[in-house]
Amino acid sequence: TQSNTMARRLMVGGNWKCNGTMGFAKSHSTDVLNKLKFDPKKVEVVVAPTALHLSTVMANVSNNVHVATQNLSLTGNGAFTGELSTDMITDAGITHTLTGHSERRTLYGESDADVAKKTKLAADAGLTVLACIGELLEERESGKTKDVNERQLNAIRELCDDWSKIVIAYEPVWAIGTGKTATPEIAQETHAEIREWLGKNVSADAQKNVRILYGGSVTDANAAELIAMPDIDGFLVGGASLK
Ligand code: PEP
C-alpha cells in the first residue's frame, strides 16, 4: 500500500442523479463549482448533471471543472429512443462519464456485462470513466463483499485491457443516500482488496495508478478522515454535491 498523494491525482465527482432545474444548473455552476478552491494538478473535479442540464453546466463552469454524463448508450447512433451515444457525448465536448451506478444496476436492470460494455465503449471513445461497483447490505453481512466487487470488476476486465481511462468508484450500496458511511477502516480494507485485484488481474501499473474513489454518504463532516486512508483517492458524492 502506498500513499495516495504520491502517484495518483485525487478525484472528486458530484452526481446530481435526477435532480435540478435549468436555474440550479446555472447558479450551482457559477456560485458553487466555479468558487471551489483547489489545485487542479492535485485534484480533478467532475460534475455529472442530468442529460438535460449538461449544456447549461458546460456553458457555465470554468475549465477546471470537468463534466460527466451519468450514463451512456450500449449502442451507437440510430433508432435507439431515449439513449445518448458516446459519439454525441464526445461531440459535445464532454470528457467524463459514470457507468454502473448502483441505481442503474438495481432500478434499471443493468447487468455486470452491460456495465462492462458501457465502460469499454466509453474508454474507447476517450472518456474518463468512473465505473461504479459495490455490494448490497445483505452481501456485506454474509461476507460476500470481496466476491461481489471482484465479479463486477472481472466483467469489466474481460472487455477492457487498457485501464488508463478507468477510475473505480467503490460505492457500497448500503451507504448510498442512507447517511450510513463506511468507516474509514472498512472503506480502506475494501479499497486495498480492489487495489490488490488490479495488481493480480490487470497490471502492476494499474495497481499503482488506477484511482479508487469512495462513494456513499460522503459529506464535509466525514471526507477528511476517509481521504486520509492510503487507498482512497477521492470521492463520488451524491446528495451533498447538490449543496
Ligand atoms: C452516489 O450517488 O454516487 C452517492 C454516493 O450518493 P450519496 O452521496 O447521496 O450517498
Quick overview:
Helix content is 38%, strand content 16%.
Description:
The protein is α/β, with parallel strands linked by helices. The chain is built from ten helices and eight strands. It has helices at about 20-30, 55-60, 85-90, 100-105, 110-125, 135-140, 145-160, 185-200, 205-210, 225; strands at about 10-15, 45-50, 65-70, 95-100, 130-135, 165-170, 210-215, 235. Strands 1-2-3-4-5-6-7-8 form an eight-stranded parallel β-barrel, surrounded by four helices. Helix 1 packs parallel to helix 2 (about 55-60) and helix 7 packs parallel to helix 8 (about 185-200). It is globular and about 45 Å long. The two termini are about 35 Å apart. It binds phosphoenolpyruvate. Phosphoenolpyruvate binds near residues 216 and 238. Phosphoenolpyruvate binds near residues 17, 171 and 237.
Radius of gyration: 17 Å
Describe the main β-sheet briefly.
8 strands, parallel, barrel
Helix content: 25-40%
Structural class assignment = alpha/beta
Work out the number of β strands: 8
Using the alpha-carbon principal axes, give the shape: globular
Could you tell me the mean pLDDT?
Answer: 96
Q: How much strand?
A: 15-25%
SSE succession: EHEHEHEHHEHHEHHEHE
Query: What ranges have pLDDT less than 50 throughout 5 or more consecutive residues?
Result: none
Features:
eight-stranded parallel β-barrel, 10 helices, 243 residues, binds phosphoenolpyruvate, alpha/beta, 8 strands
